[in-house]
Amino acid sequence: MRKKIDARIRTLVENCVKLRQRGLFVIIGDKGRDQVVNLHYMLSKAVVKARPSVLWCYKKDLYLSSARKKRMNQIRKMQQRGLLDPEKEDPFSLFVASTQIRYCYYHETQNILGNTYGMCVLQDFEALTPNLLARTIETVEGGGLVVLLLSNLNSLSQLYTLTMDVHSRLRTESHQDVTGRFNERLVLSLASCPHCLLMDDELNVLPTSSLIKYIEPVPLNPDGTPVNDPSAASKQELQDLSGSLADTQPAGSLVGRCRTLDQARALVTFLDAASEKTLRSTVALTASRGRGKSAALGLAIAGAVALGYSNIFVTAPSPENLRTLFQFVFKGLDSLDYKEHIDYDLVESTNPSFGKAVVRVNIFRNHRQTVQYILPQHHAKLAQAELLVIDEAAAIPLPTVKALLGPYLVFLCSTVNGYEGTGRSLSLKLIQQLREQGAKLSSGEGKSGDGLSGGRTFREVQLAEPIRYAPGDPIESWLHNLLCLDAGQHVPRPPAKLPHPDQCELYYVERDTLFSYHKASERFLQNMVSLYVASHYKNTPNDLILMSDAPAHHLFVLLGPVDETQNVLPDILAVVQVALEGAISRKAAMSSLARGELPQGDLIPWTVGQQYQDPDFPSLSGARIVRIAVHPEMPRAGYGTRAIELLKRYYQGELSGLHEEDEEEADDEEEEADEEEAGPSK
C-alpha cells in the first residue's frame, strides 16, 4: 500500500544536498532497514551525480541471511543480463543489488579512514562507542545522510537503560551497576541538531524539538546556488588567488588543485618557505580532521621538487599513513607536466605489513631528486636532507619529533582534535618552543646554538574550512559538542586573581548533573575536558564514556573561593579523576591468579597480587588517581599538590561533604533548642 510521507523528510534531504551539508535520521523500530531504501531513493533523486555509495556498519550479524545473500547474487546476475523485472522483486533486494555498498564490522572501521561515502548506516546501537561514532560519521560527504537504526526499541526512553557492549569493560568485581549517562546525553543532544529527524519505522516523524516543527526549502539563486551559501565568499577568494598566481610557477599550477581557500593559503606559505632556501625554517600546519592537511603537504612536496630540492625525506608513524600525501605528490607533479616513467618512478614497500605503500619517488627530469620515506626513529639518516616533512606529528613521541629537527627546512603537520586523540601536547610544548625562539630571532636575540632550534624562523598555519562538506555543517557541530572534540581549542582563561592554594577547596562532581545536557552543565563539562586535553598527550572520545558511565570512577574539581551571590560558573583550577579499586573476594582473586588473567579495572590490586602471587592483596580497598589535570597557564602553582592533599584527607575521613555539614548544623540547632527547653524557667 502506498503512503504519503511527511514532507519534512524530503525537504531536509534536498536542503542537505543544496547546502552540501549532512543530515542525521534516527529510525526506531524493527523494520527500519526497509526505510533505508526509501531514504536512499530520495537522496539519489536529489543529487545530480551517480547513485550515492553506502557504508553499512554492523557488529556481528548483517540483516542478510545466507539464503538472502545467494538471492542477491542471482539478482545481480539477472540485472547484468537484462532479465530482471523490478515489479516482481523486493525493494530491499533491488537496493542491495543496484547500490555500491561497503559492509564493515565495527571493529574494522579503521580500514575506512580517508574514504568518502554518500550515506552511512549504523545498526546494532549497543555496539557503538564515541570513537566509532566519530570515525564513521566523518566519512560522509556533504549532502549525504547518516542513518542510525534502533531496532528492538519502542521508544527513545528505552535507550537510557540500554546495556551497551562497552559497559562490560567498565564493570569491576566490586562495582557492577552501570548508569547509562552517555546515552541519555546523546538522546537529549539530538533535539538541539537542526538537521536531525527522529522517526519510527513507518517514517512518521517524532516530535522532539521546535527546530524541526517547520523545515522550509532552501531558497536558491538563479544559477542554482543557495542564497545564503556559507562557502560562496571563500570560493570566490580561492578563484581570485588562483588567478593572481597563474603566472607564478610552481604555485600557479598547484593552487588549482586546492579545494579550499585555507588549503591554498597553507600551500603558498609552504612554497614561500621553500623558495627562500635558507634551510633554517620550520612551517607548522595544525587543523582538525578532514581539512586537507596531507593533501597540502603532498602538493608542497611537488612544489619543492620543481624548486630544485634534491633530498626530500618524509616521515610518519607508518607509510600507510602517507597514502593521501603521496597521492597528492603525484597529482602535483602531473599539474607541473611531469610524466610517470619518463620524469619520475615510484617504489612500493616490500614489507607485507605496509601493504604496498609508496616509500620512495625517484625524479630524473633535470637532475636526480628523491622523495624518501624514513621511520621516525631513524633520524640519524637525515644528514644530507634538504627538506623534511613530518606528517601526523602528534602520533610520534615528542622527544623523537625534537630529534628530527635539524639544519634543513622542516614542514610538520598535526591533528589537534579528532577521534584518534589530540596533538595538544605537541602544540603546547614543541610549537610553543619554536614560536618563542622564532620571536627571539626576529627581535635579534636568537643565538645560533640556542637549544632545540636556535636561529630557525618559524611560521604557523591553521586550516579551519572542511573539505568533504560545507562550513557550518550542523552534524559536525553536534558531534563535536557531544564528544567534546573542540574542548582543546577553548581552554578557559585563568581567573584574573589567582587564589592561594590554601584558599582552594576540593568539590565532588555529581555525574548525573554533569551529563544532564543542561546549558551550565555542558559548559562545565567542556571546561573539564579542555583541561584534560591541554594537560595530557593522548585523549580519545572514549574517555568520555569512562567519565560518565564507569561505576568505579569519580570526579573531583579544585575551585577557588566561590561567591554564591554571583550567578556564574566557578573557575576550574584542577580536575582529578579517581577509580576506586580492590574489595575483591579471595575466591575471585585465587581463580584469576591461577589462570594468569588480569580482569578489566582494579589495576593496582591485580598487578601487585599477580607480581607477588598474593591472593589477599586484592581484597584491600584503595583509590587510584587515573588523571590529574591543572590549568595549563598555571603550572607549578601548587594547585595539583593541594588537590591531592585534600583528596587524601577526604578518603581518610577528615573532610565532610556539604550535605553532611548541613546535617551537622541541623543537629546542633536541635540540640541547642532542646537545651533551652530543658533550662530553668523564670
UniProtKB/TrEMBL annotation:
TcmA/NAT10 helicase domain ranges (all copies): 285-486
Domain N-acetyltransferase: 527-677
Highest taxon of source: Eukaryota
Swiss-Prot/TrEMBL catalytic activity: a cytidine in 18S rRNA + acetyl-CoA + ATP + H2O = an N(4)-acetylcytidine in 18S rRNA + ADP + phosphate + CoA + H(+)
Transmembrane intervals: 295-314
Record has Coiled coil as a keyword: no
Subcellular location(s) per record: Nucleus, Nucleolus
Main location class: nucleus
Domain TmcA/NAT10 N-terminal: 8-200
Presence of keyword Transcription: no
Ranges where the record places region Disordered: 223-242, 655-682
A single BP term in Gene Ontology: rRNA acetylation involved in maturation of SSU-rRNA
Keyword set, alphabetical order: Acyltransferase, ATP-binding, Membrane, Nucleotide-binding, Nucleus, rRNA processing, Transferase, Transmembrane, Transmembrane helix, tRNA processing
Protein known as: RNA cytidine acetyltransferase
Lineage: Eukaryota, Viridiplantae, Chlorophyta, core chlorophytes, Chlorophyceae
